[in-house]
Amino acid sequence: MLTVDFTKFPINPGDRVLDLGCGAGRHAFEAYRRGARVVAADLDVKELPPVGSMFAAMRETGEAGPPGAAAAVSADATNLPFPDGAFDAIIAAEILEHIPDDTAAMAEIARILRPGGTVAVTVPAWLPERICWALSREYHEVPGGHVRIFTRAELGAKLAAAGLTPIGGHHAHGLHSAYWWLKCAVGVHDDKHPAVRAYHRLLVWDIMSKPALTRLSEAALNPLIGKSLVIYARKAETPKPVIPNGFAVPLASTRSPHGDAGGSGGVVPPGKQSDLAGSGAAE
Q: CDD domains, per this entry (predicted)?
């Protein structure tokens, strides 16, 4: 289930893509299918081995598009182990609501994104999230849980302050809000409640079958109660310096000369992540 719409956030073969806060890797896998050189990063190291294994399986079965390469790494969003301008595109899906210093994370995203690069940021939408908080303290008052609720205006302003200009956005997962309200009402961790199980089966059926009725229903619900807010933003191009005779001086390429060292699809150990921007996954 993708939150980012890749028709609005195009990824091209060879693009250097970071999926920050990758979790189980859903967006990283889609970028890899499109031939990108992908780094999937998460603070929770337990998430990474399955992601690395999936990268390897995709490569072995031919599901990864050429000339893609991929690696899974551990990284702190407020202190990322990558050089300036390392990535052409960055995805930060459902991560900023967990980070106390969200402005530091946005500054890091802007730093490692190349001039002219794009970022897709998703967070829980204000209204559905506010209802979840009202129904259940357990939903958000847990270690590592949600520490804030963004409005669209607040998120856009913070991205702009970091040097990332919003260029579009939408809501997603309109069918999922009621599921989370139900879980908050009966107990966030009570997955065996009959109503929760029934709704979960509906969502799985919808994801797998994509019937027209639920697709139309979700499209109608998304602007009203879409569970996720998605904003796309761009980092400004670096102006070319101009010499006195009026001719622009082209800047040196930001691409690294290093070869493909990240194609194994494995997990990169701490201390080696800074090499990825010039190796298989990010270059």
A: AdoMet_MTases
